[in-house]
TrEMBL record:
This is DNA-binding transcriptional regulator, MarR family. It comes from the Bacteria. InterPro entries: HTH_MarR-typ (IPR000835), MarR/SlyA-like (IPR039422), WH-like_DNA-bd_sf (IPR036388), WH_DNA-bd_sf (IPR036390). Residues 1-127 form the HTH marR-type domain. It comes from Paractinoplanes atraurantiacus.
Length: 129
């Protein structure tokens, strides 16, 4: 059932991402930068569960589109700090809002107590990453 739900969520999110002109991995990368700059591309890849070599073209595209920055770390110029630009934050917030609205619509058929229990279990499982 978890696999079927995962597929359903992906199918629900794909048109939202397409409407915003962003791929799933680009959205995941922006989500990984939401709390502030990340010290290296490798650290971001590890944090979001992506292969570093496959993430680089995604980051190149995000940078080209003005959604992220890659700046030299003043403490170590060999290291690149990755961060979201205001345009990246705006896009990320819009995509997240649309995805959350779709999730709310999906959960609307469940009773409130069942929704609350389901979300509590998901949060507990997520903490065990």
């Amino acid at each position: 059932m978890v696999v079927r739900l995962g597929r359903r969520l992906i199918a629900m999110e794909e048109p939202i991402l397409a409407d915003h002109g962003i791929s799933m991995w680009a959205y995941v990368a922006l989500s990984g930068l939401e709390d502030g700059p990340t010290r290296t591309q490798a650290a971001l890849a590890s944090a979001i569960g992506a292969d570093k070599t496959r993430l680089i073209p995604v980051l190149d595209d995000l940078q080209r589109r003005g959604l992220i920055t890659r700046e030299a770390d003043p403490a170590d110029r060999r290291v690149r700090l990755l961060g979201m630009t205001p345009a990246g934050r705006k896009l990320h917030a819009a995509v997240r809002a649309d995805i959350r609205a779709a999730e709310e619509a999906l959960l609307a058929s469940a009773a409130e107590k069942d929704r609350a229990a389901f979300l509590a279990v998901l949060e507990a499982l997520d903490q065990g990453r």
